[in-house]
Amino acid sequence: MAYYEVSYAHPAGREWSTWQGRMGENRVVTWNDPEIGSWNFKVRACAQSIDEDQRRSCTSWSPQLFVYTGSG
Length: 72
Fold this sequence. Notes:
The chain has strands at 2-9, 17-22, 37-48, 56-58, 65-69. It is mainly β. Strands 1, 2, 3, 4 and 5 form a five-stranded antiparallel sheet that branches.
């Protein structure tokens, strides 16, 4: 099984959180009422083996992306 891992830090959080999403075209993730401030993101692709030990392999993390969200 192949999937993406998106690691992010939001304005109120000082630690990174990770979200996993399925591979495929046109994948979009949205947050309702996102916090205003500095968001940081990085992404990598992973694959889970079908062996009994369930090993996974992942690419290196992408460069970090910084996004500032302001009030409308």
